[in-house]
Structure formats: C-alpha cells, structure tokens
Task: structure prediction
Amino acid sequence: MNILKHPALSQWQSQFSSTLFWRKQLKQSLLTLSGLLVFVLCWQLASSQIQTSLGQFPGPTQAAAQWSQLVDEYQAEQQREDAFHRRQLERHAAMLAEDPATEFTSLPYRARPTFFSQILTSLHTVLTGFVLASLIAIPLGMLIGLSNNLYQVFNPLIQLFKPISPLAWLPLVTLIVSSVDLSSAWGSRSFVVSVCTVMLCSLWPTLLNTAVGVSQVPNDLLNVSKVLRLSWWRHLRIIVLPSAVPMIFTGLRLSLGIAWMVLIAAEMLAQNPGLGKFVWDEFQNGSSDSLSRICVAVLVIGLLGFALDRLMLMLQRKVNWDKTAVSR
Amino acid sequence: MQKTNSGMQKTHLELTQVGISFPTEKGPFVALQNVNLHIKKGEFVSLIGHSGCGKSTVLNIVAGLHQATTGGVILNHKEVTEPGPERAVVFQNHSLLPWLTVYQNVELAVKQQSDGKKTKAEIRDWVEHNLELVHMSHALDKRPNEISGGMKQRVGIARALAMQPEVLLMDEPFGALDALTRAHLQDSLMEIQAQLNTTVMMITHDVDEAVLLSDRIVMMTNGPAATIGEILTIDLLRPRHRLQLADDPTYNHYRHQVLSFLYEKQRKVEDLGSKRAEKQHHKTQASA
Result:
C-alpha cells in the first residue's frame, strides 16, 4: 500500500494545510501565553511588596537566576563525579603497573544530591508506588465490582481509609518498615517508606472507580454474554474489562495526582530523599537564595505533576476504545 | 411461490402454562400466566400487545434469561433452563460490543459457538458469509459507533444468525429505526428467513410489520396477569411484497383484526384516559 495515500496521512495533511487549523492553533497558543504572562506579572508585582525574614520575596527574575544556578551546580557535580572516576582509574592503573596481581575494589562515588537527582528520585518513587497501588487496586476493584456482596463488605472499609491523610499514615509506615528487616534488593529504607505511603494513599480512587466501572456494565451486554455462554474468564476479559476501561482510567489519573501530592508531603516530613526534602532543606537552610530555590522547586513540582497527568492521558487515548470520549 | 404452511414439520418449540410472578412487599405480583404456544420449525411468529403486557418477558423466558415461575419451555424435547446459542437473541438496541469491530463482534459469536472445531479460515468464511447475508460486507473493520443505527441492527442480526440458531428471538428489532430503514430491514429479514428456514419469534409494536412478516400473530392481553388473547394465522403467499399487499383485501382484513384486538378489545390508551378522568374526579371531590 502506498503510504502517501493512507487515509490517516491525507487527513493529517489536509488538516495541516488548512489555514483554519493554523488560525485555531495560533489562537490557542496566544491564549495560553497570555495566561502565563498575567501570572508572571502578578508574581512580580506581589513579590516586590512582600518582605520576609530572609529578605524580599523572590520575583520571576530571581527564580530564573536560581534555576540556572541549580543547573550549574548539577553540571559541577557531574564534573566532580567524572573526575573522581578518572582519578580512581588512574590509581588502579598505577597499582597494576606496580604489581599485576593487586586486587582492589572500586569505590562508589558518593554523589551529593543535586536538584535534578532529587527529581529523579521523586519520579522513581512515585511511579513505583503508583504502579504497585494500581496492581492491587485494579484486580481487587474488579472483584468488588463483580459481586454485590463483596461490595457491601469492602465499601465501608474503602470509605474509612480513603480520607486518611498521608501524614497520618507516615509514622505507622515508618515504624513498621523499620521493624522489618529489609534486604538490599528493596532499596533504601526511606524509599520503602515513601513508596508504601504513596501506595496507601493512591490506592483508593482506582479501586473505587474500577469497582463502579465493573458494576455498571450495560445489562444488554451482560445478556449477550449469557446468550453466547462466555466462560467466566472470557466474560471478564471480553465484556467486563473493556467496558470498565474508561472508569479505570479516571481512577488511575486521580490516583496518580494524589500519589504525586502525597509523595512531596511524605518526603518533607520523613526526610526521604526527593523534591520534598529539597524544599524542606532549603527552608531550614535559610540563606538569601533559599526562597528563590523553593519557588523554582514549587514550579517544577507543578510542571512534573502536569506532565505525569498528560502521560496518563496519552496512555488513556491509546488504550481506550471510545475515541469519541472527550478527555482533558 | 409456496403456501405459508407447507414445509413445516411437527412442533419444535413448546410453551406450556408459562407464568411468571415477582415477589413484592404486597405479596407476589403475577405478571404473566397460562401462556401456551406451539411453534413449528421454520414458523415466523410475532408477539404483539400494548406496552407492559409481558411480551418481552415471554421472549426472555424462551431465551433463558428469565426463569418461568410456573410451566416451562421445551425446545426439541429439551427443557430450556439457561441461555444458549441455539436460541440467539437480536436485542432492541443492537447490543454490539462498542470496543470490537463489526467483524470482531460476529467473530466472537462464531468462535464461541464453534468451540475450537472450526479452523481459522472456516471462521473467517462463516463470519463474512453472515455479514454478506445482511449486506454489511463493506464495513467489516468499522466500529459500532461509526455506522448507522440500521447498520448496527443488521450486524446484530448477522451475529445472531452466525450462531446457527434453532430459534431466532427478536425483541422489537426495528423499533428504534426510521420507517424507511425499517422497511428495508424487514425485506432483508423475510429474504433471509426464506433462505434459512429459521424459526423466528419476534416482538413488535407495529401492526403492519406483524402482518407482513408473520405466519401467526400472537396477541397478548394487558397485564397484570397477561396472557395470550388471540392467535391470528396470516395465510398470505410468500414471498410477500409490501406494495402489492397494500391494496390486498385479505392483508387489510388481517390488519383490521389486529387493530381491533388492540384498540377495541384491549383498550389501553382510553383506559389511561378514563383513569386520569377518574383521578381528576376524585381530586375535585376531595377539594370540594
């Protein structure tokens, strides 16, 4: 098949060649930009009015300066690490030249956490917690949704646990995790504490939405399944799961949003490495740059949360059969 | 041209003393009782009656989706206790799985019914054959939301036919369609039924549809405790053409009989009116 004649491609071409499309795009980006502009202006104006114990509240320019400072620090740390490895290699080479039989162990570089390594840690933690929560919530939600009795059993429990704040879970999780002997395969203790807290808080929206989605399969489709005499497993896979997919994704997106918020709070309070700890450390540090750095961190937290949600949306668009569904 | 009743054999679907009642707070509510019906192989039977008279309940009992409280249904000397592909159902609102394509919707039924006995090529041929039967070969890879209501109903029929059912159960299959599409599908259905000689039990609200398609029309009385009021045998030659029949005195006579049953013997609309008048009367009395 000639790829140039593919209907999707020709549709795409005509969409891009039309001036209407570009006018719409232009209008949209102008509106987005004007929103951002208004925000930056308000920030600038408001910051000049606020005096704190650490000096004047930073405006957009100071925050931007700190951003490049943070980038510089990251690059410097990278150079230091490269230099460390180079030195170690040279040393090993020298030792080998003296005595070929020398046995030596490579020392790991103890990197000082930079802003960007904290971001990676946070993302790693939140995704681990979220994936684990989803792996529990989706199958459990399906079971609960399939059986009215199970729903009656679990619903009060879900309603009880759903509103619990991550800060309330944290001491319990910390104590339990420290009482359990963890092998190194699990990662550091603080990582496990963060993951468990994220999991406990982000479980519920997916669980509830999956259960509701599964219990709301249209009666006609259930009848089709009966007439076709689908087995339990095929009934689940062919009828129930696809019709619950839109609701499951609603739950997953809510869960991911909650997971990200919970993680920052947990890191702050429990001193687990990550963006939350970065903010807390800067707050305790109290240097003249701290406030600007916190501003940068706050914006980055927002941006990453937004990016995570977009990622989920993309996945939803890919998996969801209902392409007409408006998802934003 | 063949006479309607020729080529039919002995009874093959039998409803005996079928009744259903639902428990309520005020004791059991009898929705349906004493339904007796014998249907021969290849016969086309319509069920007609006012809304709420239990037509759908009868159909659902035959389908096995509902359990009769009294009496029972026998198909080919076997009691009906659960749904099964030998009694395929065409639902009112098509009930296609929206996440599967037209082809996949029919394929699901074929695969389920063949139980691993058909090869891949055989399945493909059979799915395509049935979609061709309802003239839907052009839309194999479309999803249900990309095709019109009439097309969806065609696919629903193809799915039911692909199960090679002994009995085709249709619950107001064309009720949600516009008049032109409906007429078109009625003609298709007659054509297919003549070809396959499938036994059909169809629920309808449409008098013309009932007379045009059926060998017998089962007219149901109003609920509660609904039952069969009259059975009208339609002795018209097949194939039937709606245009020729429009001026046919026999056809109009049958039509008149169904209408007189619905609007004289089982007046539902006027009942509602008189009830409202009664209520109004009570109200004025109460306020006075």
